[in-house]
Amino acid sequence: MAGDVDVRVAMPVVETASGRVAGYVSKGVSVFKGIPYGASTDGANRFMPPCKPAPWGGVREATAYAGRSPQAPAAAQRPELATVWGAVDTLPVGEDCLTLHVWTPGLDDGKRPVMVWLHGGAFSYGSANSPRYDSVNLARRNDVVVVAVNHRLNIFGHLDLSAHGERFAQSGNAGVLDLVAALEWVRDHAARFGGNPGNVTIFGQSGGGGKVCALLTMPSAKGLFHKAIVQSGASVRFAERERTTRLADAVLKHLGVSADQLAGLPLERLQEAVVPAQATLPRPALPLLDRYNFGPAIDGSVLPAHPFDPDAPAISDDIPILVGGTKDESAIFLAPDDAVWNRTLDEAAFDKHLAAVAGEAAPTLGAYYRRRDPAASPADRLISALTMSNFTVRSNMLAERKAARGKAPVWVYDFAWESPAFGGRLKSCHSVEVPFVFDTLDVIGERHRKPDAQALADRVSQTWVAFAATGKAEWPAYTAGKRPVMVFDDTSTVVDDPDGEVRPLWSKVAHERR
């Protein structure tokens, strides 16, 4: 429990559909952690759609984080970056992971906007329990209710066993069905926590942005949220049945069991199959767009179609969207490469890396980045180019296709503030904006400190909440004609069509089958 808990205030208690929960008060905000919105997903519930939690008697204490899905291995990183964003979640993993946390300024009829946070981690790792996501400041300073969700990940949330029996028909999308169950809980309980169930915004970063995109496409999620924010995780496509079935068959082969025997295996044994099963898969047809192996499956039912390919989903025509990313997303993913980290990468290596991603378009793109940033090192230019290929191109497609529908608008941002940590090597890397959104700069520590950081955090968090409240941003909406982008930095400004010279070329590269 947080050290700033006000011990003079009685524990707040709320009646939920499953029983009463008692939280605590921090800085005037009522906090409830680890509330079950679903039953344990082990045993017979493994790979099945979520079930309601069993009711309890008396008052259940909800003062500590709970619920952390079994984790798949995260991408390799430099050891010094292990805690770059503050303390990491070290709770034991388990299949009793369908929990959520609530922060509210008032247990009253305030009808506040509700913001539902979906954590990152590529649908494979992470949790809602990170100190970066603590929402006391966000809730208190902006009069908003915040909910953060834990759910099934990797092989537990996205093993498509549909070819092995009707009862497994939805197993490939169990993890996103958990999110629908959490949103149903929010619909049924928001008013009890001072929120407005008719004004719910889903927001997520990285894989969490992918989760937002999945929900924008799901018929079962229709009506459960009203605005959407996608941070550094625009998903244009997910895996199709042929690929998800092949992955499931590789899991069964590796474990030497039938689909019906999986429910009885220890979770540790299932986890052992994650890496070797994925190693059997061929390269995706569209590697810059096809996202995630253990992730949502295009099954024609839970997910009827790709989120934003070839068009934006008509089912979400009424949902305004805020989408964007950070200026140098790829800096942290390239950090394990000593030549990039130490800025000793040479021009030949820059060309080689770019060719591996862009193929025949690499010379044109390389010339553009050399011309755009003549004083930059090859490593810094590579970070820029691979940020465009791996992130910005998908955000652009989402915005273009949403705007083309001519219904609810879409706004685009770029977070350009650079961290001074590690001598500035991280630049404006992936995840750097998260503590600005949650107003938790104190959590990530002094190494990221710059004089105007808190002022920017105030602006970013207020922008997110204003969008959640009204469905609008302060700058012009994105259109095919002008393409305005808000660039958040110490001094923020609107730029029309940044990198517009190569935007169409990157889009062409992304659509080329390999």
The name of the CATH superfamily of the largest domain reads Alpha/Beta hydrolase fold, catalytic domain
Mean pLDDT score = 96
Total tally of structural domains: 2
Which architecture of the largest domain per CATH?
Answer: 3-Layer(aba) Sandwich
Major sheet characteristics: 11 strands, mixed
Percent in strands: 15-25%
Number of helices: 15
Q: What class do helices, strands and sheet pairing give?
A: alpha/beta
Write the layout of secondary structure elements.
Blueprint: E1 13-16, E2 19-22, E3 24-26, E4 29-36, E5 59-61, E6 99-104, E7 112-118, H1 136-142, E8 145-149, H2 154-157, H3 174-189, E9 195-205, H4 207-217, E10 227-231, E11 237-240, H5 241-255, H6 267-272, H7 274-278, E12 290-291, E13 297-298, E14 321-326, H8 338-341, H9 347-358, H10 362-372, H11 378-405, E15 410-415, H12 434-437, H13 441-444, H14 453-470, E16 484-488, E17 493-496, H15 503-510
Parallel strand pairs: 2-5, 7-8, 7-9, 9-10, 10-14, 11-12, 11-13, 14-15, 15-16
Antiparallel strand pairs: 1-2, 3-4, 4-6, 6-8, 16-17
Helix pairs in contact: 9-10, 9-11, 10-11, 11-15
Task: Provide keyphrases for this structure.
514 residues; alpha/beta; Rossmann fold; 2 domains
